[in-house]
């Protein structure tokens, strides 16, 4: 007889080792500031920004950026930060501030505190980094991401002309506003596919 802990079975008088189902493991997770750094390296314009692990460091980064319109953003691997809340009592993981002193105050309430969003649930996620950037006043906002598609088993580009805030709600209310393009893992996205996606997203 075979013990249950050996995880084997008898099939047609032959013994086969059961292959354990290994859950998918995410090998690449980038925080916002890491993604922005990659865009900057690719010569894509980004807003001036800095990253800190304590409030005083953020104060210095705010002084380097200068100006009176700044944004402090919790760097946590979860969506919905803007509508989240911290166990420190602070409402929102994205805060508009108007001085280095105010930036330091907001950062002190984020760092070392858990943020709770729709994605984190009751467990929350600890915030150990914050980013500060210059506030930009945009005329239009688009959403674009590349993620893994479980149906095709490969990457898929997803875009929308309706901005990146509450994109889940946009997808639920207006599925036609979401543009998708499966990407061949060997060939990558072609120029024709990129142009077609840009057209469907409303770029002229």
TrEMBL record:
<dbReference type="GO" id="GO:0042709">
    <property type="term" value="C:succinate-CoA ligase complex"/>
</dbReference>
<dbReference type="GO" id="GO:0046872">
    <property type="term" value="F:metal ion binding"/>
</dbReference>
<dbReference type="GO" id="GO:0005524">
    <property type="term" value="F:ATP binding"/>
</dbReference>
<keyword id="KW-0067">ATP-binding</keyword>
<keyword id="KW-0816">Tricarboxylic acid cycle</keyword>
<dbReference type="GO" id="GO:0006104">
    <property type="term" value="P:succinyl-CoA metabolic process"/>
</dbReference>
<dbReference type="Pfam" id="PF08442">
    <property type="entry name" value="ATP-grasp_2"/>
</dbReference>
<feature type="domain" description="ATP-grasp">
    <location>
        <begin position="36"/>
        <end position="82"/>
    </location>
</feature>
<dbReference type="GO" id="GO:0005739">
    <property type="term" value="C:mitochondrion"/>
</dbReference>
<dbReference type="InterPro" id="IPR013650">
    <property type="entry name" value="ATP-grasp_succ-CoA_synth-type"/>
</dbReference>
<protein>
    <submittedName>
        <fullName>ATP-grasp domain-containing protein</fullName>
    </submittedName>
</protein>
<dbReference type="InterPro" id="IPR013815">
    <property type="entry name" value="ATP_grasp_subdomain_1"/>
</dbReference>
<dbReference type="GO" id="GO:0006099">
    <property type="term" value="P:tricarboxylic acid cycle"/>
</dbReference>
<dbReference type="InterPro" id="IPR011761">
    <property type="entry name" value="ATP-grasp"/>
</dbReference>
<keyword id="KW-0547">Nucleotide-binding</keyword>
<dbReference type="GO" id="GO:0004775">
    <property type="term" value="F:succinate-CoA ligase (ADP-forming) activity"/>
</dbReference>
